Amino acid sequence: MSFLIVGASVAGTRTAIALRQRGFSGHIVLLESEEHWPYDKPPLSKDLLAEGHVPDVPRLLTPELAAEFALDVRLGMRATGLDPARRVVFTHTGDEFSYERLVIATGAHARSLPIPAVPGVHTLRTLDDATALREALAGRPRVAVVGAGFIGAEFASAARGRGLDVTLIEALEIPMSHVFGDEVGREISSIHTLHGAGLVTGARVERFLGSEQVEGVALAGGTEVPADLVVVGVGAVPNTHWLADSGLPIDGGVHCSDRFEVEGFPSIFAIGDLALRRHPLLGVSARIEHWTSAGEQADAVAAFVTGAEPLAAQLPYVWSDQYGARIQMVGMPSLGELAHREGSIAEGRFRAVYTDTDHNPIAQVSVNDPRAVAAFRKNHRRGGSLADLVGQQTSAR
Ligand SMILES: Cc1cc2nc3c(=O)[nH]c(=O)nc-3n(C[C@H](O)[C@H](O)[C@H](O)COP(=O)(O)OP(=O)(O)OC[C@H]3O[C@@H](n4cnc5c(N)ncnc54)[C@H](O)[C@@H]3O)c2cc1C
């Protein structure tokens, strides 16, 4: 059997390595559109933007590892089409790659605003994006960040860490309220103002000011936020354009089963940021755009195709580092009700627990409290109650 893996970031490289670790000895080819050896993305919005020594970006694969695992890695090779009937992937060079099993792991790209960009307006998704931003930050610009989600918040934090003037511009009245709900969204996003960043909420960006170089952001209603550097962090769009004529079920992601088989195409798997499936523990269809999930999905595919025991589904987990604080989220808070909160951002430690309609904990957000994450997971596995998790004394709000 042979495997073709398209996209060599965390989902793709982890699949290849997991296949080898589980004893798969057939041919494995990885196609990757970037020229860089595969690297990890989380440091791009964190350590890589900090002032001073430039840290090495952790590599997901090196020439040595590729040789050790006998992986045929084709960098700078962009897939442009797929013919599932012939089991062939086409590339921009005109080469065709045939496969017996295909893994689609082409992830996502940063969403842009539907207005003309000008020089000085950036997005942050790739190593080249982060390198360009690092260089731009060294010029000590005034910074505006459009979007106060995880990426925007981390960029704002890095820029404040350099002592720069930073203003976040957010469309929602309460940043992250779509993820955490109003009360916790308000608490978590207070981290920005606590660390001296400006925060404009309920704002709609109309246009960027300047022509040769960005001079600011014009908002509906007439407000102008002056800036020499703008980062747009308004989410990511799945990289499915190359599959448009393939006949695969694509609608906001690649639709796949519990085992990540693409619906109707059993020899094709889709994993990582672009995989859309009904999550067995959450009971809803979702694309989970988190680093840990991409790795878990890769291992699940490798286990399935090598005939190992199916791996148990995990609750989604994401972390975010902002202003020296670590924010961790397990589960999907928007599916539950806020049932318990303790601490605050100002105190440097915070936790919120969400329950389902039966009052069982289904999600948690915590700040600077890694033990709370382990405790939540353990309680969830056991089917424990809110009182089991937070103690009888503190369970009442
Ligand atoms: C700046 C940043 C910081 C992050 N920080 C965190 C964090 O702190 N915690 C967390 O949980 N998650 C974080 N994430 C999210 C996490 O990195 C993603 O969930 C993860 O990278 C998804 O992996 P993936 O392999 O599915 O997709 P991607 O990482 O998007 O990789 C897709 C790969 O496919 C390649 N590709 C695309 N199209 C083609 C094509 N047509 N042909 C060939 N190759 C193609 C791309 O070049 C890319 O290498 C962060 C993401 C970013 C961008």
What does this structure look like?
With 397 residues, this protein is of the alpha/beta class. It has three domains: 2-109 and 236-305, FAD/NAD(P)-binding domain; 112-232, FAD/NAD(P)-binding domain (3-Layer(bba) Sandwich); 324-390, FAD/NAD-linked reductase, C-terminal dimerisation domain (Enolase-like, domain 1, 2-Layer Sandwich), CATH 3.30.390.30. Helices cover 23% and strands 29% of the residues. It contains nine helices and 27 strands. It has helices spanning 10-21, 63-68, 127-138, 150-161, 177-180, 182-194, 291-305, 370-382, 386-390; strands spanning 2-6, 27-31, 72-74, 79-83, 88-91, 96-98, 101-104, 108-110, 121-122, 143-146, 166-169, 198-200, 205-209, 216-219, 224-226, 229-232, 236-238, 254-255, 261-262, 265-270, 275-278, 285-287, 317-322, 325-330, 337-344, 349-355, 361-367. The strands form seven sheets. A six-stranded mixed beta sheet has the order 3-2-1-7-20-19, with helices on one face. Helix 1 (10-21) runs parallel beside helix 7. It is globular, with a radius of gyration of 22 Å. Residues 392-397 have low confidence and may be disordered. It binds flavin-adenine dinucleotide.
Write the layout of secondary structure elements.
Layout: E1 2-6, H1 10-21, E2 27-31, H2 63-68, E3 72-74, E4 79-83, E5 88-91, E6 96-98, E7 101-104, E8 108-110, E9 121-122, H3 127-138, E10 143-146, H4 150-161, E11 166-169, H5 177-180, H6 182-194, E12 198-200, E13 205-209, E14 216-219, E15 224-226, E16 229-232, E17 236-238, E18 254-255, E19 261-262, E20 265-270, E21 275-278, E22 285-287, H7 291-305, E23 317-322, E24 325-330, E25 337-344, E26 349-355, E27 361-367, H8 370-382, H9 386-390
Parallel strand pairs: 1-2, 1-7, 2-3, 7-20, 9-16, 10-11, 10-16, 11-12, 18-21
Antiparallel strand pairs: 4-5, 5-6, 8-17, 13-14, 14-15, 19-20, 21-22, 23-24, 24-27, 25-26, 26-27
Helix pairs in contact: 1-7
Bound molecules: flavin-adenine dinucleotide (FAD).
Residues 6-12, 31-34, 41-42, 44-45, 78-79, 105-108, 124-125, 151, 239, 242, 272-273, 289-292, 294, 318-320 line the site of flavin-adenine dinucleotide (FAD).
